[in-house]
Every structure is written in structure tokens, then in C-alpha cells.
Amino acid sequence: MDRPLTPHLRRGVVLLAGIALTGACSAAAQPAPSAARPGGAHPAAARAAAQWRADPARGTADFEGTETKPGTVRVVDDPTGRHGKSFALHTSGDKLDGPTRVRVETRGHRTDKGPLRFSREGDVVYVGWRSMWGPLPTKKGDWVVLWQLKDYGPGAATPPLSLRARGDGTVDLEYCDPQLKTTRLWHAPIALNTWHDFVVGIKVSKDPARGWVRLWHDGAAQQLPGGSEQFPAATLRASWVTDKWGVYRSDGIKGPATAWLNSPAVGGRYEDVAPKG
């Protein structure tokens, strides 16, 4: 025969029920395990992966194209013995003809889903890589472009961003606005035959009030004009922009040049693309 609960037992039952209910609510608040990713990657790790990375084992297949006028793009061992297989972009420096400037560059990024191009307003992308140059002849008053964010499609003109070696022993990041006014965002002495790491952060926009640029050099965020680490910039021109690595130079410079490239990557965060090791 059931006996009525005493006040003491009644309080114990209520307490146990509350504990059980709290546990059930906590379990319900936890997200259900996701389906396994290829290779067993955790979902957070999958989101953090670079959107694009060039694998030297695939030769130049991960680039949308190469421009060799004249020159070669090859996969070689890092001559310093530090970073393994790397890309060597070499030009003899001999012009093909009068109108054609000397260049040897990679162009863009090829993925399984097609070319990765920057064209959507408001997107934030980070481009990271490791560069070494040598030989790299320069001349006062002339320039050598080593990396550029290049515009394509109707209305394409001067690239919004260019990393340039100058004839004064420096390298700088130059911004060109839609009115073709240039601003030197950053500069430093150029050191040949040694590796340097770069990451450029870009908010994609045709509006200079919405777009921006950031720069890291050898792992350190750089101060840009205005005293901030972020500079307002119109980074989208024409139909889309993409980036290029290599050597592209004005006509006054003569002689062979080599640009070494390691760990090029594109992603949504600095951590996704910053060169490691």
C-alpha cells in the first residue's frame, strides 16, 4: 500500500527532479555531432583551412596561369635549404620586342571549383606568402613589381596594390586609387637572397570608405599612413581582382632576375595563410 510522502521526502523528490531536468536541458543545448569530414577533420579545422594553396608537387597547376615574357616558372629546392620545394620565377631580362615589358609572373588561383577571384563587395581575404629575390637588378627612377593585386575586365587600368622594388634599395607597398593617385603605404630596405614573409589583408570593395588594406611583414603587423594598421582603400576595380607574383619591370632595368616563392595561400583569416616555419 502506498504511503504519503513526508515533507522531508517530498523535498528530496523535487530536488532530484530538478537535477534531472537541468541535465536534460544542458544535453539538448549541445550541438549534435557533425558528420565526419574527409580525412577526419574537425568542422572548426575545416573552416580554418586556406581557401587556396599552391602545392609545388603539382607544378604550376594551382595557378590560373603564368606569364613568361620571357622567362620560366619552375619548382626547385629552396637554395637556402630551409623551406623545401619552392617556385623559382626567372627571366633573362631580354625583351621580346619594343612594346612588351619584361615579366615572369604567376596569375591567379585555380581550384576544383574554378578560378578563385575577388569580386564580391564586402568579402575579406588574406593573401600570404614567402619571397626571396636574387639577382634583382634595379635602377634609380625605375621599378620592379614583385607582387600585385591586378584588376581585370572592362575598365581595368592600374593595379590597386603593388609591392615594388625601387632603385634606392627599398621595397614598398603602393596603393593606387580609382583616380590613379598613388600612396606609399609601407616601405623597408630590400634584402636580397634571404626569405621574407608577407600577408596582405584585403576587404573587397569599390568604395574607399568600405574597403581596406592591412599588411604583415615577417610576422609583424605594419603601421600604415594615418598611424593605423588598416588603411581605407578601394580594392575592387573593373569586374574582379586577383593577385600575381614574380618580376614585372620598367624598361630602364637590364639583366636577369629571379623571384623565389614559397607557401602562397589565400584564406579568410591571417592564421590561415601566414607562412609557417
UniProtKB/TrEMBL annotation:
The region called Disordered is annotated at 53-100
Q: Is Isomerase there in the keyword field?
A: no
Q: Where is the signal peptide?
A: 1-27
List keywords of the entry alphabetically: Lyase, Signal
Say if the entry is tagged with keyword Signal.
yes
Q: Which GO terms describe its molecular function?
A: lyase activity
Q: What is this protein called?
A: Heparin lyase I family protein
